[in-house]
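To whoever is on call:

I kicked off a structure prediction for a single chain this morning and the downstream step that reads the tokens threw a length-mismatch warning. I double-checked the sequence; it's 166 residues and nothing unusual in it as far as I can see. Pasting both halves so you can look.
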Amino acid sequence: MKVGDIKKLTSIDWLDQLEADHAEYLEFGWGDEQAYRVKTVKTDMIMKAMFLPTKSVVHLERFKETPYVHYSDSQLVTVDVTPAQLETMLSVIEKTIGKDFSGKFLNIGTGVEADSTFFRAKKLYFIGRSCSMWTAKVLKAAGINARSFFAPKLMEKLRQEVIPVR
């Protein structure tokens, strides 16, 4: 998500909590806390996350270069959304993040990437509530239907559902 677009096109009032004024783009993700907070995910972490409800986090990464440069080894799908769709997607993301008594996001530390942060998420992670399902829920809020349990299938459905914009 482009920071300038969020500021210009939406009425989101919680951007300052993300400490993202220096960034051009934001990437949000959600997943199992233990697996998400390490560089190398081990099989036992995957099995635990799949079959035992575990604590979850929202990961925020901030960066300046375009996503196609920043994630040059990834297969990206760019989705063009209206300001209303963007605001709805951001609302779903905000509702995922845990807050303290004063309404501030629960920042639980720096992420594994250079400029990233983890926030406590509200719901537990397990196979019935996976990161792909969370992503599909955010997209569905914008009217983009691409539900899947697994990331490769989600990406396949996205490629079928949307016209790529670059």
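Update from on-call: the warning came from a stale cache, not from the record. Cleared it. Sanity check on the structure: The first helix runs from residue 3 to 9.
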